[in-house]
Amino acid sequence: MIPFYHNHLQSNLNPAEFLIFKILLNLLQINKWVRLESLATSFPLPIKFESRRKKLQRFLSLEKLNIQKLWSPILEQIIVTYYSLDNPIYLVMDRTRWDNINILRISVLSKQRAIPVYFKLLDKKRCVDGSRPQGPQKGSPS
């Protein structure tokens, strides 16, 4: 973990929350996917599965994990440390849909990786510009 990242998180989370965060980070790197059930199954606590799942669910819904409060200072430090004013910073905007969940995400490109810097859950019934989605137009492929 980058030292600034480590110090910032440790100063904003209590020791138990910081430990849960570190364990989750390791599990995410091992599992390579985000599913609460799989994380709860792998989470090393000697309690019942349902209790581990609820504990992780409560942790992930903490107000402290707000993107503006916790993640923005980390991202700002990463950009200041690893990018220079001489080189352009490339931002990527992406809208992803998972079942009924629409997510608008803005990321910074770095070494062929996209580092998310902002995201917003969108109303599933609206497009990014606020209009209602339309079906296929006549003459367009479906």
Write out key terms for the chains shown.
142 residues; alpha+beta; three-stranded antiparallel sheet; 5 helices; 3 strands; 44% helix
Write the layout of secondary structure elements.
Blueprint: H1 3-12, H2 15-31, H3 36-42, H4 49-60, H5 67-82, E1 91-98, E2 101-110, E3 113-122
Antiparallel strand pairs: 1-2, 2-3
Helix pairs in contact: 1-5, 3-4
Written overview of the protein:
The chain is of the alpha+beta class and 142 residues long. It has two domains: 1-82, no CATH class; 87-131, no CATH class. Helices cover 44% and strands 20% of the residues. The chain has five helices and three strands. The protein has helices at 3-12, 15-31, 36-42, 49-60, 67-82, and strands at residues 91-98, 101-110, 113-122. A three-stranded antiparallel beta sheet has the order 1-2-3. A hairpin with a 2-residue loop joins β1 (91-98) and β2. α1 runs antiparallel to α5 (67-82) and α3 packs across α4. 4% of the residues are buried. The model has no long low-confidence stretch (mean pLDDT 81).
